[in-house]
Design a protein that fits this description.
The complex is a heterotrimer of chains A (271), B (604) and C (259). With 271 residues, chain A is mainly α. In chain A, 50% of the residues lie in helices and 6% in strands. Chain A has one domain. Chain A contains ten helices and six strands, in the order ββααββααααββαααα. Chain A has a two-stranded antiparallel sheet. A two-stranded parallel ribbon of chain A has the order 3-4. In chain A, helix 1 packs across helix 5. The relative contact order of chain A is 0.14. With 604 residues, chain B is an alpha+beta fold. Chain B folds into two domains: 377 residues, FAD/NAD(P)-binding domain (3-Layer(bba) Sandwich), CATH 3.50.50.60; 138 residues, Succinate dehydrogenase/fumarate reductase flavoprotein, catalytic domain (Flavocytochrome C3, Chain A, domain 1, Alpha-Beta Complex). In chain B, 36% of the residues lie in helices and 16% in strands. In chain B, strands 1, 2, 6, 7, 8, 9 and 16 form a seven-stranded mixed beta sheet that branches. Helix content of chain C is 34%, strand content 14%. In chain C, strands 2-1-5-3-4 form a five-stranded mixed beta sheet. Chain C contains ten helices and seven strands. Classes of the chains: A mainly alpha (271), B alpha+beta (604), C alpha+beta (259). Chains in contact: A-C, B-C. The interface between A and C is large, with 61 and 77 residues.
């Protein structure tokens, strides 16, 4: 068996104590992975369905409400509903506009440190829970392709920022109702809440915390970065909650816009 | 000479991997010597990690008025003048440098606003003087030294218990014999010099803050090898140990709680310490609660509160309150910081105390008082050493840290132990290196001593119907707690001396079950001889010292006696056996030069 | 009070099995207390490591009901009803009963390139609380090795021990990389030899840490980001080339501190 090369010599392969069982844990350790798999699977099914719908994602033209689903913004395809695009069209793209852009938020979340923890545990069982045996015989972690690509998280983070700007712009646009002037509807609030949660999810990101503050050696010499890092750190501790909240709310926002656009629901005007 | 066992050869052998042992190793290694450290536990687990409050060094970072002279004076007064003045002087002068060098090796102390090392108040120290890291300073010290030692490539023999020192024909130290705890196999070490850094003896008492390791191995081995022990009757009972739940009774509550504003109250809610200020400390102690409270923020606005008197004074006061019927439900008194500081302050300054009480006692110290009482904590006595070199009377044998005596006199000030470790740990390394470079060294290795130690160690396996070592240990702890505890009287001490004779018999008649590999019962059986030896010295010293001074309080002689203030009681042993006859003699203190004596008069 | 039953793993490298001990339960006891009472009565040869019994030394690590925990900080009355299972740490080879051979960790410790500060100025270094606070969190580590024990990279894949330092040492590297005085650059070493890429941030180390150190969020992920800075971020790489800010690598013997 191999050894660890060091001044303290360690021969590997020694016999371990305790029974050879998957785990001795008696608590319900499987609850967490089951919940994760259920929610994420439901989200993936729903978002795939929604992305292929290619309709009911924009409200403005049909019901004088300028609401757009986050799955479809920015709307860049040929097929974009009138009024839903932001002025730039990719003429060659004839599929659903959602398919053009979903790669970026998907990539941001796939490479997110929190989601990695969750899906490595829940989907890949590596490990399913702490002190529960790994389901795989061999393991190379994130040292090889494709998982080495997780190191690109910061680029998806930057792209995510661009989307946040876009969706914030959409929320502001939802204040203006063509033909009715300025005002606020439930839909406006939904879009603002969605944009806010996405901003908080981005700002609480580990890469963000590193890039905008954590990478310095001396905070004393970089007071602004230190201030930012101090703001981000408590948010970062809530990254998991924000990841779930923003994910579910994105789906909810799409559902809401879809219901209004299809006419199943009237977007209630507050003032 | 060929050892029949696994054998190693070094220049300097250090027994014990606490702060003193590691610091000694660094020094000896820097001198280019072949150095090995032997420890009963894993590296980094030594009792040093339990030190919480900080390390005392007169750096003057918080109070510019502070300097080595004040620190020297505080140490001597705290030690009730029984100290080796030269050790106190060296310690006060050198500790700031020792603290600073730790930062070069990676220590991260808490900081002042201008980026210097922050210092905190502690009992008996006139100024805020303790460099600290929250309430885990000991951990920081041991980790820093451990990482330095490892980066220098020093050999560390872990979980290896030394049984006995080995001489050459001339009586100089030549090495030691030990066994590996994991396998139970014996091993011998030859060395030109041996440094003892084995720590304390507290495991012989029932309520103690000490771990299983503190069985006085170094004290006993030094005595068996021909060195002298002094001041063995001076044992510090830390005033604040946990008293409940019973399973954690004795566990330490840092003095930092009081340094940061915590106060002691009895069951009537009274801050009773104001009733227990001895004349010696009256001039520098607050007279009212208001005055004491002002002091925390500005030491010039009032005098220090009596909760911060030296530990022996506070421990005695708590004992008296409990005896007078004003104790807490579980037989202690209340330590209250909840009503005096904000929860945020408490959690930031005392994080491990917060967790300790929360997790072990279910007490939230930011809302409730802690129940505390005295616990056996530290032995001021130990091997008699030379201040400059830490050399004992046996050629080639050195001692530093808790196992050595002199620096703390009759009572140690909180925070002086961590600085003791690095100041005298370094001096031990230097002393041993100088000894070796001077050409001294053993001329042989007495295998007969090895064989005797091995035979004694294996005896409990031969004995079929002897006693369980755990029973003997439990009875010993109860006997010592009852008769040579915090308050002593002549009749009880004499009873203990008699009883220890019987305990020695019982130790000769132990049985152990199972094999030699990692057998705690056997390990304890090999610790018990040391425990008996040090307990005997403590009892003998306590019987002779017919006065009360520092960590030695006699009910039948409640006052200090100036005559006793001039002598140490020195113990020696003729035949090297743990139950052999011990001779106890008076040995005069070193006389202090006039300019140092002058310092003690100032500000009385 | 009621009785407590402990199922303790007894054995060594040649094999082993559970042995049950039933004792009276005392108020406020922790698991280590019960183990000690078993030692003092039924089984004086029951092997277990312990020192401070206060959660400060990190000696008494074991797995209680399958969860890596310190025996001295696990209260018996807070465990669910029924027998309590106590087994040795799974990741390290057994020596006897609850004692394992943790020398893997000491081998990794020996490989850490030490702090390399500039020469100390008169009166000591100046460092500021906001700069030392990050490292202080990691220096709370008591080296109980529970994070190493729970880490599936080596718990379930013995071969990875040859090239994976484990969470305890990632916090050590993070501490050094964030140390305001340090001038070494350990990023190559961390990626190539210490196996940072093997960590898939499943956060079990953080879950079991008795000192509540945020191992993953505050040490491992910042280290991963630092490695990205050095290896996977072409913009950062270009920036360094232009501004000529290459740090010296700690693997280079020339930047090792003198003993």
């Amino acid at each position: 068996m191999a050894t660890v090369e060091s001044s303290t010599k360690v021969v590997l392969g020694g016999r371990r104590g305790g029974p050879d069982v998957t785990t001795l844990r008696q608590d319900r350790w499987w609850v967490q992975p089951v919940v994760t798999v259920s929610v994420l699977t439901a989200f993936i099914i729903y978002s795939t369905w929604a992305a292929f719908q290619n309709k009911n994602y924009y409200v403005g033209a049909t019901a004088h409400r300028d609401l757009i689903s986050p799955f479809y913004s920015p709307c860049l395809a040929n097929s974009c509903l009138p009024g839903s695009s932001h002025g730039f069209i990719l003429h060659g793209w004839n599929l659903s506009p959602a398919l053009l852009i979903l790669l970026f938020p998907l990539g941001f979340r796939m490479t997110c440190y929190y989601y990695r923890r969750s899906y490595y545990r829940a989907f890949w069982w590596s490990p399913p829970a702490c002190a529960v045996a790994d389901a795989h015989k061999t393991y190379s972690g994130e040292t090889r392709f494709p998982l080495i690509m997780q190191n690109l998280h910061r680029y998806f983070f930057y792209a995510g920022l661009a989307f946040n700007v876009m969706l914030t712009y959409d929320a502001f646009r939802a204040l203006r109702q063509p033909g009715l002037g300025w005002g606020v509807t439930i839909g406006t609030l939904v879009l603002f809440a969605n944009a806010t949660l996405l901003w908080m999810y981005s700002i609480s990101c580990h890469a963000c915390r590193h890039l905008f503050g954590g990478h310095v050696k001396s905070f004393k010499k970089h007071p602004f970065r230190y201030w930012f890092w101090k703001v981000m750190t408590p948010l970062n501790a809530k990254h998991m909650n924000l990841a779930w909240a923003s994910l579910l709310f994105v789906a909810f926002t799409d559902v809401y816009v879809r219901l209004v656009a299809s006419g199943a629901l009237t977007d209630y005007k507050l003032f | 000479m060929t050892s029949p066992y696994e054998h190693h050869d070094y220049d300097v052998l250090i027994i014990g991997a606490g702060g003193a042992g590691l610091r000694a190793a660094i020094e000896a290694k820097q001198r280019g010597l072949r150095v090995a450290i032997i420890t009963k536990s894993l590296l980094g687990k030594a009792h040093t990690v339990m030190a919480e409050g900080g390390m005392a060094a007169a750096m003057g970072n918080v109070y510019e008025e502070d300097n080595w002279k004040v620190h020297f004076r505080d140490t001597m007064r705290g030690g009730k003048m029984l100290n080796n003045y030269r050790m106190a002087e060296l310690h006060a002068k050198e500790s700031p440098e020792r603290v600073l060098e730790l930062e070069q090796w990676g220590a991260l102390f808490d900081r002042t606003k201008d980026g210097k090392i922050l210092q905190r108040d502690f009992g008996g120290h006139r100024y805020a003087r303790l460099a600290h890291v929250g309430d885990r300073t000991g951990l920081e010290l041991i980790r820093t030294l451990q990482q330095k030692v490892v980066s220098m490539g020093t050999d560390v023999f872990m979980e290896c218990k030394v049984l006995r020192l080995v001489h050459d024909e001339s009586g100089a130290i030549a090495g030691c014999v030990a066994y590996w705890r994991p396998s139970g196999e014996f091993v011998t070490f030859a060395a030109k010099a041996v440094i003892l850094a084995t720590g304390g003896v507290g495991k012989s008492w029932k309520f103690t803050s000490n771990s299983w390791e503190s069985t006085g191995d170094g004290h006993a081995m030094a005595l068996w090898a021909g060195a002298n022990l002094i001041d063995m009757e001076c044992i510090q009972f830390h005033p604040t140990g946990m008293v409940w739940p019973l399973s954690v009774r004795g566990l330490l509550v840092t003095e930092g709680v009081r340094g940061d504003g915590g106060v002691l109250r009895n069951s009537e809610g009274q801050r009773f310490m104001f009733n227990y200020v001895a004349d010696m400390f009256r001039a520098e102690t607050a007279e009212s609660e208001d005055e004491g409270d002002r002091w925390y923020d500005d030491h010039t606005a009032g005098r220090r509160p009596p909760e911060l008197l030296p530990r022996d004074e506070v421990a005695r006061a708590i004992n008296a309150e409990v005896k007078a019927g004003r104790g807490s439900p579980h037989g202690g008194v209340f330590l209250d910081i909840a009503s005096r500081r904000t929860p945020e302050f408490i959690r930031r300054r005392l994080p491990s105390m917060y967790h300790q009480f929360m997790e072990l006692a279910g007490v939230d110290i930011t809302r409730e008082s802690m129940e505390i009482g005295p616990t056996c904590h530290y032995i001021m006595g130990g091997v008699k050493v030379d201040a400059e070199t830490t050399a004992t009377s046996v050629p080639g044998l050195f001692a530093a840290g808790e196992v050595a005596a002199g620096l703390h006199g009759a009572n140690r000030l909180g925070g002086n132990s961590l600085s003791d470790l690095v100041v005298f740990g370094r001096r031990a390394g230097m002393g041993a290196a100088d000894y070796i470079e001077g050409g001294a060294g053993p001329s042989g290795f007495d295998l007969a001593e090895v064989q005797l130690a091995v035979k004694d160690a294996l005896a409990p396996f031969e004995n079929e119907d002897g006693e369980n070592p755990y029973d003997v240990q439990r009875d010993l702890q109860e006997m010592m707690q009852a008769n040579v505890g915090i308050i002593r009287t002549g009749s009880e001490i004499n009873f203990a001396i008699e009883a220890l004779g019987e305990f020695a018999e019982r130790v000769r008649n132990l049985s152990v079950k199972g094999g030699r590999a990692y057998n705690p019962g056997w390990n304890l059986a090999t610790d018990l001889p040391s425990m008996i030896t040090v307990s005997r010295c403590t009892a003998l010293g306590a019987a002779q010292r017919k006065e009360s001074r520092g960590g030695h309080t006699r009910d039948d002689f409640p006052k200090a006696d100036a005559e006793y203030g001039k002598v140490n009681f020195a113990h020696s042993l003729a035949n090297g056996a743990f139950d052999g006859a011990i001779t106890t003699e008076r040995s005069a203190l070193l006389s202090m030069p006039a300019e140092l004596a002058q310092l003690l008069e100032e500000g009385k | 009070m009621a009785n407590v039953t402990m199922r303790v793993w007894r054995g060594d490298a040649s094999g082993g099995d559970f042995e049950s001990y039933t004792l009276e339960q005392n108020e406020g006891e922790v698991v280590l207390d019960v183990i000690h009472r078993i030692q003092a009565t039924d089984a004086p040869d029951l092997a277990c490591r312990w020192n401070c019994k206060a959660g400060k030394c990190g000696s008494c690590s074991a797995e209680i009901n399958g969860k890596p925990s310190l025996m001295c900080m696990t209260r018996v009355d807070e465990l669910p009803e029924g027998p309590i299972t106590v087994t040795p740490m799974r990741t390290f080879p057994i020596i006897r009963d609850l004692v394992t051979d943790v020398s893997f960790n000491f081998a990794m410790a020996a490989k850490v390139p030490a702090l390399l500060p500039p020469p100390m100025p008169e009166g000591g270094y100046r460092m500021f609380q906001e700069d030392v606070a990050r490292g202080q969190e990691f220096r709370k580590c008591i080296e109980c090795f529970l994070c190493q024990d729970v880490c599936h990279v080596i718990r379930d894949h013995e071969d990875n021990k040859a090239h994976y330092a484990g969470p305890r040492f990632f916090i050590r590297y993070a501490e050094l990389e964030m140390h305001p005085l340090d001038t070494n650059d350990r990023r190559d070493l961390i990626r190539e030899e210490m196996g940072l890429g093997y960590c898939n941030i499943t956060k079990c180390c953080t879950e079991v840490c008795p000192e509540h150190i945020k191992i993953t969020d505050n040490a491992i992920i910042p280290l991963k980001e630092r490695v990205v800075d050095a290896h996977y971020d072409p913009i950062a790489w270009l920036g360094r080339k232009i501004r000529r800010r290459e740090k010296k690598s700690a693997t280079d013997a020339a930047v090792q501190p003198a003993p």
